[in-house]
Amino acid sequence: MFSPEGPTLRELAVQALSSVEHGYDLLAPKFDHTPYRTPDRVLDAVASALGSMGPFGTGLDLCCGTGAGVDVLSRVCRESVTGVDFSAGMLAVARERAVPEGPAVSWVRADARALPFGPAFDLVVSFGAFGHFLPRELPGLFGQVRSVLRPGGCFAFPVVAPPRPGSRGYWTLLGFDAAMRLRNALWRPPFVMYYRRFRLGDVGRELARAGFRTDLRALPEFGYRPDGSPRARLVVARRLS
Q1: Is 1 within a domain?
Q2: Buried (b) or exposed (e) across 60-80, using 16+ Cβ within 10 A?
Q3: What is the pTM (predicted TM-score) of this model?
Q4: Which domain holds residue 67?
Q5: Where would I find the Methyltransferase domain in this sequence (predicted)?
Q6: What is the mean pLDDT of the chain?
Q7: Distance separating alpha carbons of residues 141 and 125, to the nearest angstrom
């Protein structure tokens, strides 16, 4: 799963026993060499889908990490792009990245649950971050996203179809969640990472309550399941007035 440039098992263990923020500070120098970084295939698929909807003016990458999503925004935004994350270590790595040609890029350290912006963005994206938020935090998180979007602005993020019950992927995720619950029962501070809790039905309801109109767009690059449903979708939530 990890390249030779990635973290060692000991480094991963130290990270897992830290807080979410400090854990990512520790992991940051090697984060791009782990499976936790969003694959280029996903980034390219999202950029293609957004390209057919744009162009956009200003963009925000929510929980940007080392900045992979900022590259997507740079392809579809004309004016400016901002990455926001609460890990100083991840942002330090992001600032060292080669800035793609296109709009100006800036980096801001802040908590996604208390964004320091007004309604300044036309597009907000996020990649792989929602497992770090408990279900009870989604209303506040989506409310924050709405508050930084201009009317009609778009909040977009990819979701993968959940593994079928009984499959290898299903048991892997179930085991991971169980391990995280055990870790948090025995150790403080907690490390929140519960990806099975981010269910599309719940997300759709919370987005509607927060003032979004939501559509789902298939990402055909990932194919379809035997029942004809897409293996991956792009959630496109537009801010109402």
Answers
A1: no
A2: bbbbbbbbbbbbbbbbbbeeb
A3: 0.90
A4: 39-239
A5: 60-153
A6: 89
A7: 13
